[in-house]
Design brief:
427 residues, cytoplasm, five-stranded mixed beta sheet, rod-shaped, Heat Shock Protein 90, alpha+beta, 13 helices, 69% helix
């Protein structure tokens, strides 16, 4: 944005050097013009000129005027009204000296040089015009000659006006461009400053967002592991305990005791496998080897065998592959619903219905068990029994679905999980 640093630095150095030289000329040239005019006035005094001593006195007063305003008080240059007084005095001394002796046109020429540093706007034009008249009078040989040969004086005045006016115009344009450049540089500096602040703020926001993303990732992973542990280890351990308790009660009946122990071993192996898959964030094994409807049929059959309760699984609509996360959510919801039935419902029948619709897939789980009062609070559960419906609701909500629970004491329970029918392979 700021260009080549070397080029910019070099241009700035050259501009600074030129400004320093300009300031030196502004202070020194008035004395040079006054000295040259005085020397020529003494050495080659034109006819009709004022006597030497009065002329030297006026020249000395002019020098003191310049010295007081320019040399002794250089800081006054920024005080426009005071400098206007100085310039008027400068032209007055120049006019008197040119009338006294035409050689002082060299001093009158300083009016061109000082018009820009000390006069604002249009006053510069007035100063340049007045200076051109004085210089033309000097070039024409003095006031008396200018009056007697006024056409020649008028031509000289016009020539000086054209030359001085052109230089003045170019100088004013250059000054405007310089002011514009300074303004642009200042605006660029302000833009760079704001950009730097914005970059710093963005860096801070980026770091904050990274921190929040890490924290959100950690929290999400904790919630995922909590759900997986509940859906695998917790349910598996509950089933193992149930089977071992049943085995203890049937210790005297060898066949029943062996069946319950075998069921407990099978549950332990299955839970271990699912726990490992959960840690690795792999899909549940039933979905790796079968479609969702078949996995639900297999789940219902295993659950019925373990709990001795009939579980009927039905599918409606046109079954089709769904996004892996959707299928995992429905399978886990079915597992949790059946686990709740086994723990709390004391049901004799359970029905699972998987319904494929255009935009939604719904899993309904109904039982004829004890039921409970739905008050907007989580369903009753045994102490230490874990998530329950909370985990199921979190899973369904996480994929943009809804979970509805209907139940009344003595009338069973109906759980409905509706999720978007995202096609398989969708990101």
């Amino acid at each position: 944005m700021s260009g080549d640093p070397m080029t910019s630095s070099g241009g700035h150095d050259r501009l600074t050097t030129w400004r320093a030289r300009e300031a030196s000329l502004y202070r020194v040239l008035p004395y040079g013009g006054l000295a040259l005019g005085t020397l020529l006035a003494v050495v080659a005094q034109p006819p009709g000129s004022l006597a030497t001593l009065p002329t030297l006195a006026i020249a000395a007063a002019a020098g003191c005027w310049v010295a007081w305003f320019v040399t002794v008080h250089p800081g006054w240059q920024s005080r426009l009204k005071l400098m206007a007084v100085y310039y008027a005095g400068l032209l007055t001394f120049a006019a008197v000296l040119v009338v006294a002796n035409p050689w002082y046109g060299f001093f009158a020429w300083i009016g061109y040089l000082h018009a820009f540093p000390v006069l604002p706007g249009r006053l510069r034009i007035a100063g340049v015009v007045a200076t051109a008249v004085l210089v033309a009078t000097s070039q024409g040989g003095g006031l008396a000659v200018a009056i007697s040969h006024w056409p020649l004086w008028l031509l000289l005045a016009l020539f000086n006006l054209v030359v001085a006016g052109s230089v003045t115009w170019f100088a004013m344009v250059a000054e405007q461009e310089d002011a514009k450049r300074k303004r642009l540089v200042a605006e660029l500096g302000e833009a760079n400053r704001q950009l730097t602040e914005t970059v710093s703020e963005n860096a801070g926001l980026h770091a904050q967002l990274l921190t929040q993303a890490r924290e959100a990732g950690v929290l999400d992973e904790r919630q995922r592991m909590a759900r997986e542990i509940h859906d695998t280890l917790a349910q598996g351990l509950t089933g193992i305990i149930t089977q071992l308790e049943a085995a203890e009660q049937t210790r005297d009946r060898s066949a029943d005791w062996r069946r319950h122990v075998d069921n407990a071993l099978a549950l332990a192996r299955e839970s271990l496998t699912e726990a490992r898959r959960s840690v690795q964030a792999v899909r549940p094994e039933p979905l790796e080897t079968a479609r969702l409807p078949d996995a639900l049929v297999e789940l219902g059959g295993r659950w019925s065998a373990l709990n001795g309760v009939r579980a009927k699984v039905a599918t409606t609509g046109n079954p089709r592959p769904l996004h892996p996360e959707i299928e995992v959510t429905l399978l886990r919801a079915a597992q949790e619903a059946l686990a709740n039935v086994a723990r709390h419902a004391a049901a004799s029948r359970v029905g699972l219905t998987l319904s494929y619709m255009a935009d939604v897939v719904t899993l309904d789980v109904r039982d004829d068990g004890a039921g409970f009062e739905v008050t907007g609070q989580p369903a009753p559960r045994e102490p230490g029994s874990g998530y329950g419906l909370t985990a199921m609701r979190q899973r369904v909500t996480r994929v943009g679905g809804e979970l509805a629970v209907e139940s009344e004491p003595g009338s069973g329970t109906a759980i409905s999980a509706s999720v978007p029918a995202l096609p398989g392979g969708a990101g």
